[in-house]
Amino acid sequence: MKFKLLKVATVSLVLSVFTSSAFAGLIVNGDFETGDFAGWLVSQSGGSTQTVVPAAGDPTLGSSPTADFYAFAGNQSGPSQNIFWQSVIVPENLSSANFSFDYAYQNFGGGLLSPDTLAINNGANQQFRVDILLGTSLFDSVTLSDIVFSAVQTSPGDSNTQAWTSFNQDITSSLLGLQGQNILVRFAQADNQGPFDIGFDNVSIIAETTEVPEPSTLAIFALGMIGLASRRFKKLS
Questions:
Q1: Same domain for 157 and 64?
Q2: Same domain, yes or no, for 128 and 11?
């Protein structure tokens, strides 16, 4: 019985020696400190402006919480659609993941509307949303089966003004089944009822992974440790 307990303890020791954790930020240029959209893909249609705004920011939104550059879409002269997205790979051996960002908006077009589309030429639309999509999805998809995680979606009855605020949530359960696969992190705005300014900043997905050695390496080391431990046990007994 003592020898069996010794083997279990030794294997546990081996696992603890070889197992380690690592943290990685998956988003490139999430704070827009390059002064442009480097790392991001963008789509713009209609009468609006997409830009990276410095310091004091846009007059309607002001500066971001960190008083630095942030992504902006607005100053519309007509109906518009603005979509920003980035493709990232969910790491293998994922143990945790956290999604965070800052955002603000100002709607000048009456009430908010949230149809199941980002189109601006097929019915009334006035919305802002942030989603994580399957990597195989179209960047403008709102199909439920394409959405891995929905972070923000404005709805009828919401306030027309959202001062800068932070979103921060654990998304581990949403990503565990997608290890090794691409996902799309998307910020989208659509309006055809009047001007609608949005801003976002400090976009981050921090992933923690657990590194485990190859089974063959672990087995060889474990056998060696068990052998040494058993020899010591015989001497003591």
A1: yes
A2: no
Residue-wise DSSP of 156-195: TTS-SEEEEEEEEEE-HHHHGGGTTSEEEEEEEEEESSS-
User: pLDDT per residue over 86-124, tens digit each?
Assistant: 999 999 999 999 999 999 999 999 899 999 999 999 999
Q: What is the pLDDT of residues 60-82, one digit of tens each?
A: 999 999 889 999 999 999 999 99
Q: Integer distance in angstroms from the first to the last C-alpha of the chain?
A: 13
Q: Which tokens in the block code for residue 188?
A: 């989208």
Enclosing domain of residue 104: 27-211
Can you say how many angstroms the Cα of residue 97 is from the centroid of all Cα atoms in its chain?
A: 8
| Helical segments of the chain, H only | 2-18, 172-175, 215-236
Within this chain, do residues 158 and 177 fall inside the same structural domain, yes or no?
Answer: yes
